[in-house]
Model the fold of this input.
Amino acid sequence: MSRLLLVWCPDWPVIAAGIVDGVDVHGPVAVLFANRVVACSEAARVEGVRRGLRKREAQGRCPRLTVVEHDPARDARAFEPVVAAVEELAPGVEVVRPGACAMAARGPSRYFGSEERAAERIVEHVAQTCTVEAQVGIAEGVFAARLAARAGRLIPPGGTGAFLAGLNISTVDRPELVDLLRRLGIGTLGAFASLPPADVLARFGLDAALAQRMAAGLDERPLAARQPPPDLDVSQTFDEPLERVDAAAFAARQLAQRLHDRLAGHGLACTRLGIVAVTEHGEELHRTWRHDGLLDAAAIAERLRWQLDGWLSGTSHGLGRPTAGILRLRLIPDGVLAHAGFQLGLWGDAGQERDRAHRALTRVQGMLGPEAVLTAVLGGGRDPADQVRLVPWGDERVPARPGAPGASGENSAAPPWPGRMPAPSPATVPPEPLPATVLDPGGAPVQVNARLALTGSPRFVALGRESPVEITGWAGPWPVEERWWAPAEADRRVRFQVCLADGRALLLSLSSGCWWVIGVYD
Amino acid sequence: MAGIVALRRRHDEAGPVPTSTGDAGTDPAGRTATLIRDAGLSGLVRPASAHTGEAAGTGGDRMLPVLPELRPLLPAGGLRRGSTVAVTPGHTSILLALLVEASVAGSWCAVVGLPSLGALAAAELGIAMDRLALVPHPGPEWPAVVGALLDGFDLVVAAPPGPVAAGVAGRLAARARQRGSVLVPCATWAGADVVLDSPGGGWEGLDRGHGRLRRRYLTITASGRGAAARRREVTVWLPGPLGRLADAPPAATPRAVEAPILVAV
Done:
C-alpha cells in the first residue's frame, strides 16, 4: 500500500473566485450550484452558512453574503499555478479535483528528510508562490489522504485503518448510502468496514462495496500522475540584428526546421504558431498564425518569412516598422496535438487535388501576401454582407457570428437571426454600399418615418449619378434594429427589394435618410 | 496498320501547311484532330493524355460536369478541360451556376478579381465554400495570379480590371489547355471557346409594396467558335424557387406566382 501525500486547499471554489474574479474571500462568500451552497468562506461559516443550504436560507442567515455562481472551469484554471508550484518540489502530481492534488509521499519525504519536513516545505512554497493557504495530509490511499489533509494530520505508516475507523460515515460522500447506513445504526467508517464484504456487495451493490474498501483504507487506485508539458519553444538570438528580409528568411528556415524537429521528436504537430520577435531596442512583436491542417517545416518557415517580411518592410497592419533590427526570434507552438499522420478525406477531396490547390494558393500568397487569398465562411447575420466572413486561406474557418443559414435546422442552439433576408440572395454584394436615390411619382425623395410608413410610393431609383430607372415592383420596408443597447454599434435601418424596368433587381437599405444598394440580383 | 501508316503520311504532308478549318490549323494537336476527323476515326482515336488515370476509356475526367439545365449550352455537354468559357460581365448568377456541379463533384474553384461576389448566393446554389478560393484584389499582376491558379485549380474565374490584350488572353488560354483546367473569364475575351451571355430575364414575386423576390426566368445564350459556333439558347429559372437553378417552361412565360409561403423576414 503506497503512502500518498495530498495537498488540499480549503474552500477552493471560494478562493478561485477570489483569484479569478477578485471576490473578497475574507468576507462572507458562498458559491452556489443549482441554488444550493457548494462552498463557503470561513466568515460565512461563522455566520451559520453551510453546504447544501438554499440561496435564500443562506442569505437569511447572513445578509451580507456575496453569492458566486459555481464554475468548475474557473476552479481548474485557478488551481493550475498551485499544481505548478507543487510540481517544482515534487514530480508526479495528480490533480484529484480542483483544490486537491496528490503525489507519492516516498520521494519528497526522502528528499526533504522526513514526511513532516516535506509537508512543511510544500505548504510554505505554495503559500509563497501563489499566496494560497494549503493543508497537507499523508495516509495510505487517496481517500484516507484526503481526510487526513482535512484534519491536517500525517498518519503514521499502518495507522490509516485506525484513523479512518473513528471518522463519521458521512465522509464517504454518498448521501443515499450514508442515509441508509445511519438508519441501520452504522455511524462510523470503522463500523462500516467491519461488515462482511461479501454481504455488503450482495445487499448494497458494487458502489457500496467500493465505498467499503475505501472505508477500510484499502483504496488501491494507482495515482495517474500528471506529465509536465514538454518545453517546445525554440528561440534564437542573432549576433547581428536582422535588418534585411533575405537574411530573415534564411534564419526563418533554420528556426522552422528546429521547431519541426523538436515537435516530431515528441510525436507532436501544432495547429497554431506564435511568432515573437524582439528588436534591438526592446520592442516586442507578437503574432499568432492559425492553420487548418498541421504545420510542417515548410509551412512554418513560410509563415515566419511572411511575418518577418511584413514587419521588416513595415507593411503589416497596425504596427509601424520596428525602429531597429530583429535581435531575437521565438517560435511558440500552440494547439499542439499528437501527430497521427495526415488523414485523407473519405471522398478524395483532401488528397491530390487538395495538395495541388494548396500549392497554387501558396504561390499566390507568396506573390500577393497571405491576406490576399481568402475563403468565405458563412455565419449568422441579417444582411447578405453580414453573413459572410472572409478569412485568409489557411486560417481556421470560423464564422464571425454563429448560426449559418444551412446549419440552423440541424443545430437548435444556433441563434435564429429573425429579420434575415430570405433566399435567393444577391449574387453581387458590393464591398462598400453604393449610394442611391429613390423617388416617388412626384419626384420627391422617399423616406420612412418612425412608424415604418413610407412618405410616398417608390417609383424611380437612381444609382449614383445615373439617370433614374422606373421601379416595376417593390417590397418592404423590412426593419432591422441591431445592438440598440450599445450606442456606439447601434444600427437602425430598413431594407427594400426593388425590381427595375430594365430587368434588374436590387436590395436597398435605408438608414438615417440615405439609400444604399447593398445587393444586386444579377 | 495500313490506316495508321496512311495517317502518319498525311500528317507529315500536312506539316507546315495551314489546313482549311481555321481553328485547328495552329498547333500540331489541332492538325492531328483534323486528320482524325477527315479519316473518319473520331470514335477510335483518342489522345494519349486521355488514357491517364483510372477513368481512361470513359473520357469522364476530360470533362467537368455542369448542371443538367446548362448542358444544352455547351457543345460537349460539360466544361471540357482546357477550354475557355467566357461569361459576359454583369451576369454573376450565370457564372456561379457554371461552377456548381463541378464544385459539388469535388473540384476546386478560384475566383480572381471579383470583390463583390456574393458568397451567400454561391452557397445557396450549392458551391462548396471550403473549396472556393477568392482573390478579390489581384492587382496589376493578375495574369500571373490567374496563371498560378490554373496550375492547381480545375476552374478559375478571372475578372480582369480592364480590357485584356489578345496576347495575355492567348497565353492564359494556352496555360489552361496545358494544365487541363477550365478558364472562365468574366470579361470580353478574345478567342474564348464559348461565350455565355443573357439578353435578359425577369423576376417574379415582387408587386407594388408586397411580396418578395422568388425566382427569375433567365434566357442564356451561348456562342463561340468551332463546335460552339451554332448559337444556342436556353431559358431557366435562375435562381429557381428553392434558390437553385431549375428548368423553365419552354415559352418562358412568367406565370402567376403561387400562394406565398410564410417566411420569417
